């Protein structure tokens, strides 16, 4: 009983039946406060103002999207017109695949081709494909897949072109349009083996002149053959009568 009634033990084991706990937000210690008028004037005076550019903004500002599209469309139209003129004014248009070629070699190739009146034209597939799709040369469209160049000439200098391309393996001939006729690579090589136009004209004239001469000889053959037979018969009669050549046999006048 003495142990239970000691004040130290009683205080150590007692807990209060009700505890007060404060629940709620913390007290706001900082409120927004307007800037002092003197400070506002100081901030306004010391505000940084960027200098004006030397070039006006209207000269530096980028062009609008509509202006860029209009300018690009006009340039594309010019390139298409050049392609149409190339196909209209030249008799030979060769399509070649272009691989990387050093600048010096490219200059030499263009120099050798220009000696034979053959020009090199770089074209874009985005430009030439719409032109060919609406023309009679639309069968050339499968050739324009990679980077291509055109070899154009107002004359059909096929042999000279093949001779120059033989020394430039980076340029591969794919096909050509010669005198409004589309040819493959093999067709172009076969065309190069044909004789020149002057030689063809000479052969044609010789053939045409041979036919009338043969006809004339055939028509004269019967008459000459008949004349030869009559001459032979005359000589035979002259030999039987014993008369000298060139005289007619004398006719005997017998009594009836």
TrEMBL record:
<dbReference type="GO" id="GO:0005762">
    <property type="term" value="C:mitochondrial large ribosomal subunit"/>
</dbReference>
<feature type="region of interest" description="Disordered">
    <location>
        <begin position="237"/>
        <end position="256"/>
    </location>
</feature>
<dbReference type="GO" id="GO:0005654">
    <property type="term" value="C:nucleoplasm"/>
</dbReference>
<keyword id="KW-0689">Ribosomal protein</keyword>
<dbReference type="InterPro" id="IPR047865">
    <property type="entry name" value="Ribosomal_uL10_bac_type"/>
</dbReference>
<dbReference type="Pfam" id="PF00466">
    <property type="entry name" value="Ribosomal_L10"/>
</dbReference>
<keyword id="KW-0496">Mitochondrion</keyword>
<comment type="similarity">
    <text>Belongs to the universal ribosomal protein uL10 family.</text>
</comment>
<dbReference type="GO" id="GO:0005743">
    <property type="term" value="C:mitochondrial inner membrane"/>
</dbReference>
<dbReference type="InterPro" id="IPR001790">
    <property type="entry name" value="Ribosomal_uL10"/>
</dbReference>
<dbReference type="InterPro" id="IPR043141">
    <property type="entry name" value="Ribosomal_uL10-like_sf"/>
</dbReference>
<protein>
    <recommendedName>
        <fullName>Large ribosomal subunit protein uL10m</fullName>
    </recommendedName>
</protein>
<keyword id="KW-0809">Transit peptide</keyword>
<keyword id="KW-0687">Ribonucleoprotein</keyword>
């Amino acid at each position: 009983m003495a142990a239970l009634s000691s004040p130290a033990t009683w205080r150590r084991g007692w807990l209060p039946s009700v505890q007060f706990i404060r629940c709620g937000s913390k007290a706001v210690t900082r409120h927004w406060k307007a800037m002092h008028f003197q400070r506002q004037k100081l901030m306004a005076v010391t505000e940084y103002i960027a200098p004006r550019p030397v070039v006006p903004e209207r000269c530096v500002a980028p062009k609008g999207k509509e202006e860029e599209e209009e300018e690009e469309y006009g340039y594309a139209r010019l390139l298409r017109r050049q392609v149409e003129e190339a196909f209209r004014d030249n008799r030979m248009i060769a399509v070649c695949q272009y691989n990387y070629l050093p600048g010096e070699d490219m200059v030499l190739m263009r120099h050798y081709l220009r000696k034979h009146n053959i020009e090199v034209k770089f074209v874009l597939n985005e430009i030439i494909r719409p032109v060919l799709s609406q023309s009679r040369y639309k069968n050339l469209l499968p050739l324009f897949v990679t980077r291509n160049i055109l070899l154009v000439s107002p004359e059909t200098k096929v042999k000279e072109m093949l001779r120059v391309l033989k020394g430039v393996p980076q340029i591969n001939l794919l096909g050509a349009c010669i005198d409004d006729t589309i040819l493959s690579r093999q067709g172009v090589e076969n065309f190069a083996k044909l004789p020149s136009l002057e030689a063809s004209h000479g052969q044609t004239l010789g053939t045409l002149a041979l036919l009338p001469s043969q006809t004339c000889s055939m028509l004269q053959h019967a008459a000459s053959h008949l004349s030869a037979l009559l001459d032979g018969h005359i000589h035979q009669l002259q030999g039987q009568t014993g008369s000298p050549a060139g005289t007619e046999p004398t006719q005997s006048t017998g009594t009836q």
